[in-house]
């Protein structure tokens, strides 16, 4: 069974400069795949050492082998081709759109989807051999699959997004089953599709679902996919811990959406069936804790109170006060704390240093110790 985890981090950690240089050199054809793998292994070992040294009990490899957190859909799938990513979706606190820094490669389904490689299996194999304790595998949920459907590119093979999802979801279920067969006992689904319901402005920016009825149908379909993934994991291993992370975007310290959890809370929290919700709560953009009243008893809520976007260190007294506020809606026995997201959702990472990152993680651990002992 999994450890009782009060201090958690979402997944990604800042990439060492040597790894970024090796990845660029491989792209130029100057080093071999084997040499790049060596650099990735070194970075993963350093990530594990950092987590151990600050006192975390649940580990990741820092997602150092990935170009972005979306590797599951963007790097592992065949049958896709490059397309232009959405424009003007990222914002920083100063209101300036950081487009040049937040660019990433995007793909869309053109042919029948298949798995050309499974990056998470390589991550799991490494962690089984090297992690100093319980570890989790993070993955972009197939519930975000509609972003792979492009009307001009996809329609010939998949007339509608649901047609495509009927192929995509079984691929991720097979991946989850293979991870569990390997010995993985903790999985985290990163499910950001809910932002389209939380923030109609953001939804309109990326194409727009339509009115309230369309958003309600989209919410139901997204929950149905996430719930199907959870059920598949639990069928394979009833003791597996399944978490779900939701944030409002995290790319070079920029965000893409805002709004509280109220529009999704009752259906999501009561229907999806995960063991842990890792929820962004570091700024007012995430709203208040009131929607947590729908969280079923026995489900853990990991409060993402510490920002991974800024080097400014939060006040521990403020963090403890906010944990106390959340306990009005969730039994404190089922609360935990984390950063609001990873430190490097894309390879360039957020605008803070490795020392800032360490201090943030140390703050998460020390706050958990003060809150729960």
Describe the structure.
The chain has 373 residues and is an alpha/beta fold. The protein has a single domain (17-372), classed as TIM Barrel (Alpha-Beta Barrel). It is 40% helix and 13% strand. Helix 11 (316-326) links the parallel strand 7 and strand 8. Helix 6 packs parallel to helix 9. The mean pLDDT is 94.
Please tag this protein with its features:
single chain; 373 residues; alpha/beta; TIM Barrel; six-stranded parallel beta sheet; two-stranded antiparallel sheet; 12 helices; 8 strands; 13% strand; globular
Question: How are the secondary structure elements laid out?
Answer:
Blueprint: H1 17-27, H2 33-54, H3 71-74, E1 77-83, E2 106-115, H4 119-130, E3 137-140, H5 151-154, H6 161-182, E4 186-190, H7 195-198, H8 200-205, H9 212-236, E5 241-246, H10 262-271, E6 276-280, E7 300-306, H11 316-326, E8 335-339, H12 354-372
Parallel strand pairs: 3-4, 4-5, 5-6, 6-7, 7-8
Antiparallel strand pairs: 1-2
In brief, what are we looking at here?
This protein is an alpha/beta fold.
Give the second-level CATH assignment, the architecture. Answer: Alpha-Beta Barrel
Number of helices: 12
Q: What is the 3D form?
A: globular
Please outline the major beta sheet.
6 strands, parallel
Strand content: 5-15%
Gyration radius over CA: 19 Å
Assigned CATH class: Alpha Beta
CATH topology: TIM Barrel
* Major sheet strand order: 3-4-5-6-7-8
Distance N to C terminus: 21 Å
**Helix/strand structural class:** alpha/beta
Helix content: 40-55%
What's the average pLDDT?
94
Order of helical and strand elements: HHHEEHEHHEHHHEHEEHEH
Tally the structural domains. 1
Give the uncertain stretches in residue-range form. Answer: none
Number of strands: 8
């Amino acid at each position: 069974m999994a450890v009782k985890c009060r201090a958690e981090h979402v997944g990604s950690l800042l990439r060492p400069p040597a790894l970024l240089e090796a990845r660029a050199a491989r792209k130029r054809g100057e080093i071999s795949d084997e040499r790049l793998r060596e650099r990735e292994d070194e970075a993963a070992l350093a990530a594990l050492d950092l987590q151990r040294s600050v006192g975390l009990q649940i580990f990741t490899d820092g997602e150092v082998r990935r170009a972005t957190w979306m590797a599951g859909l963007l790097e592992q799938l065949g049958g896709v081709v490059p397309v232009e990513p959405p424009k003007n979706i990222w914002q920083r606190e100063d209101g300036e759109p950081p487009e040049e820094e937040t660019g990433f490669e995007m793909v869309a389904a053109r042919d029948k989807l298949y798995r050309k490689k499974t990056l998470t299996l390589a991550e799991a194999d490494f962690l089984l051999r090297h992690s100093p304790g319980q570890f989790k595998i993070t993955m972009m949920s197939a519930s975000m699959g509609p972003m792979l459907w492009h009307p001009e590119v996809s329609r010939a093979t998949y007339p509608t997004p649901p047609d495509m999802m009927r192929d995509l979801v079984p691929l991720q279920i097979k991946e989850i089953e293979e991870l569990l067969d390997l010995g993985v006992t903790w999985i985290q689904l990163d499910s950001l599709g809910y932002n389209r319901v939380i923030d109609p402005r953001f939804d309109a920016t990326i194409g727009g679902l339509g009115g309230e009825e369309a958003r309600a149908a989209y919410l139901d379909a997204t929950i149905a996919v996430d719930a199907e993934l959870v059920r598949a994991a639990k069928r394979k291993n009833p003791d597996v811990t399944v978490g779900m992370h939701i944030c409002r975007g995290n790319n070079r310290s920029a965000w893409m959406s805002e709004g509280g959890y109220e529009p999704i809370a009752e259906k999501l929290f009561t229907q999806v069936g995960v063991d842990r919700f890792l929820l962004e709560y570091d700024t007012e953009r995430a709203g208040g804790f009131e929607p947590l009243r729908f969280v079923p008893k026995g489900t853990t809520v990991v409060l993402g109170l510490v920002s991974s976007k800024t080097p400014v260190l939060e006040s521990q007294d403020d963090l403890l006060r906010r944990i106390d506020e959340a306990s009005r809606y969730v039994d404190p026995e089922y609360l935990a704390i984390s950063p609001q997201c990873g430190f490097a959702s894309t390879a360039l990472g957020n605008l803070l240093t490795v020392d800032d990152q360490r201090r943030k993680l140390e703050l998460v651990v020390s706050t958990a110790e003060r809150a729960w002992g």
